[in-house]
Amino acid sequence: MDALGDGTRMAIFQKLAHGPMAVHELAAVVPVSRPAVSQHLRVLKDAGLIRDSKEGTRRMYQLDPAGIARLRAHFDQVWDKALGAFQNVTEEAAEKAASRRSEIGNQRGTQTGSQTGTKTGEKNDRTRRKRRRS
Questions:
Q1: Percent over 90 (pLDDT), the chain
Q2: Is this structure's pTM higher than 0.70?
Q3: Is 64 in contact with 36 (CB distance < 8 Å)?
Q4: Sign for the pseudo-dihedral over CA of 32, 42, 65, 55
Q5: 61: buried, middle or exposed (CB in 10 Å: 19+, 13-18, 0-12)?
Q6: Whether 67 contacts 45, CB under 8 Å
Q7: pLDDT score, position 133
Q8: Percent of the chain with pLDDT over 70
Q9: Are 19 and 62 a contacting pair, CB within 8 Å?
Q10: Mean pLDDT of the chain
Q11: Is 51 in contact with 41 (CB distance < 8 Å)?
Q12: For the chain, does the N or the C end have fewer beta carbons within 10 angstroms?
């Protein structure tokens, strides 16, 4: 995982996502020398993210599907934990909000409509006054 922490290695990794490339091809697209590219490739290979094969006189580098699977499993685990924690927080917040609404409803239920100043209470007061006039 640390292997992708370097910007140049990440750029090389992303280039290899498009398909196999030789060192000289990678050196042409990243702002470092060929020896530096080789060093970055060694780090990526040691981390299990890429593999190499010999084609004639040159060595081709490509992403290692097993390494990508491990990387994906790592991120799946991170996201599962993060989303689980988020779900817990939102459920707790929803429970607290429901509890507060219930408490407010109980408080209003013990008071008359005119005491609470609710629209329903005010409407009931107007209706009673009209009935008295008639």
A1: 62
A2: no
A3: no
A4: positive
A5: buried
A6: no
A7: 67
A8: 80
A9: yes
A10: 86
A11: no
A12: C
| Residue burial 26-53, b: 16+ Cβ < 10 Å; e: rest | bbeebeeeeeebeebbebbbebebbbbe
Residue at 15: amino acid letter: K
Sheet holding 21-22, edge to edge: 21-22, 58-63, 50-55
Residue 62: both structure tokens together: 């490509």
Q: Compute φ and ψ for 66, nearest 5 degrees.
A: -65, -40
Scanning the structure block, which residue is given the tokens 């094969």?
53
**Can you tell me which residue has the tokens 């498009």?**
18
- Average pLDDT of 96-117? 72
Residue carrying structure tokens 């992403």: 63
* 53 in Cβ contact with 59 (< 8 Å): yes
pLDDT of the residue at 43: 96
pLDDT at residue 48 is higher than 80: yes
What pLDDT digit, counting tens, does each position of 53-90 carry? 999 889 999 999 999 999 999 889 999 999 999 999 99
- DSSP-assigned letter for residue 5: G
